[in-house]
């Protein structure tokens, strides 16, 4: 039995490898996942949430270059590499966009950058105990309306969109597999009650239910993850219930009962491993749906809260710029959402074809 299951898995893997769009989409998801994990290593702005605000250079186009004065922290706080990797620098350097710079007698005099032909304010700084350096800085994707590096915000924002898929799918699997298995295996009044709960949950619009749960739990990062996961278990439960109703009458389940195995072992060790193919396909679709729901919540202002970087929140902050001549500020995060969602949908289609025993 073990040899046969491995053979079927290898066959499904070989069929998946022959699907160009499935493999290509898997590569895109892997690339975005790598970017999300190493976000603060790859982002030019390594401050927490890439929140270095420079209002003087707001809404600049891609490729914008400006001279900056970097003021390094006088006292460096001890921070582990792991903390910098996952949460950014706690005490980062301060950047000031400048147009002119002079140094004399331990005093630096600089003129702040000003656009539209204006002259910025001149300031002086005692550098006797202040380490600094000046250089030209290029913003590859430009800056947002607060003067923050748009590329850094997009890279760090990938964490929320990518991680919410895993959390939401995990919660939906935990609830959906449990309730679906109990309803399908035991039937009777238990099945009727669970199906009543499923139908009630199914009848409520998803976004409305997510908003209600979010408002009940409060605004925040993890609250959104839990809220999205609590609304995506219904489809998993329905599919699992239907599959178990069909599978529990098969011979291998009857043999397991005859051997005296308890119901929990029969469900978890015998039935569920044989019905996971459609569940895996649903999980891929739920991944994409969770990303869209989180983006919608952030757009409405009840998702990830500022200054946390989120693709949906970035669209909310800049959708007015679509008609103001700078549409890229909203289109860049929107394009990222589209690519990630499409990749998961194509992976789901490829998995459906690979796991189909009729092909």
Automatic annotation (TrEMBL):
Transport is among the record's keywords: yes
Record-given protein name: Peptide transporter
Subcellular location: Cell membrane
ABC transmembrane type-1 domain boundaries: 158-348
InterPro entries given in the database record: BP-dependent_transpt_permease (IPR050366), MetI-like (IPR000515), MetI-like_sf (IPR035906)
Spans through the membrane: 20-43, 160-186, 193-215, 221-240, 271-293, 328-351
Pfam families in alphabetical order: BPD_transp_1
Family designation: Belongs to the binding-protein-dependent transport system permease family.
Keyword annotations: Cell membrane, Membrane, Transmembrane, Transmembrane helix, Transport
Single Gene Ontology BP annotation: transmembrane transport
PANTHER family: D,D-DIPEPTIDE TRANSPORT SYSTEM PERMEASE PROTEIN DDPC-RELATED, OLIGOPEPTIDE TRANSPORT SYSTEM PERMEASE PROTEIN APPC
Topological relation to the membrane, as annotated: Multi-pass membrane protein
Domain of life (superkingdom): Bacteria
GO cellular component terms, A-Z: plasma membrane
């Amino acid at each position: 039995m073990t040899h046969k299951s491995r053979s079927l898995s290898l066959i499904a893997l070989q069929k998946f490898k022959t699907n160009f769009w499935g493999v290509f989409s898997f590569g895109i998801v892997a690339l975005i996942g790598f970017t999300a994990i190493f976000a603060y290593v790859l982002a030019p702005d390594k401050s927490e949430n890439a929140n270095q605000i420079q209002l003087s250079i707001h809404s600049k186009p891609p490729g914008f270059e400006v001279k900056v004065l970097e003021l390094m922290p006088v006292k460096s706080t001890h921070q582990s590499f792991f903390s910098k990797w996952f949460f950014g620098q706690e005490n980062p350097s301060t950047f000031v966009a400048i147009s002119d710079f002079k140094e004399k007698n331990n005093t630096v005099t600089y003129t702040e950058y000003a656009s539209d032909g204006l002259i910025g304010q001149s300031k002086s700084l005692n550098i006797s105990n202040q380490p600094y350096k000046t250089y030209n800085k290029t913003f590859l994707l430009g800056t947002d309306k607060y003067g923050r590096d748009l590329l850094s915000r997009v890279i760090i924002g990938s964490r929320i969109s990518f991680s919410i898929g895993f959390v939401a799918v995990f919660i939906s699997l935990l609830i959906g597999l449990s309730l679906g298995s109990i309803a399908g295996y035991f039937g009777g009044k238990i099945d009727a009650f669970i199906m009543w709960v499923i139908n009630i949950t199914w009848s409520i619009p998803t976004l409305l239910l997510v908003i209600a749960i979010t408002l009940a739990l409060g605004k925040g990062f993890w609250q959104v993850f839990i809220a999205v996961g609590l609304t995506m278990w219904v489809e998993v439960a329905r599919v699992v219930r239907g599959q178990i109703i069909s599978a529990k009458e098969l011979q291998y389940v009857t043999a397991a009962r005859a051997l005296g195995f308890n119901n929990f072992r029969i469900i978890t060790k015998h039935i569920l491993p044989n019905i996971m193919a459609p569940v895996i396909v649903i999980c891929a679709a739920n991944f994409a749906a969770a990303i869209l729901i989180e983006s919608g919540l952030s757009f409405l202002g009840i998702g990830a809260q500022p200054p946390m970087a989120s693709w949906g929140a970035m669209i909310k902050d800049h959708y007015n710029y679509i008609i103001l001549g700078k549409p890229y500020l909203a289109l860049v995060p929107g394009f990222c959402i589209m690519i990630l969602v499409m990749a998961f949908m194509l992976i789901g289609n490829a998995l459906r074809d690979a796991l189909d025993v009729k092909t």
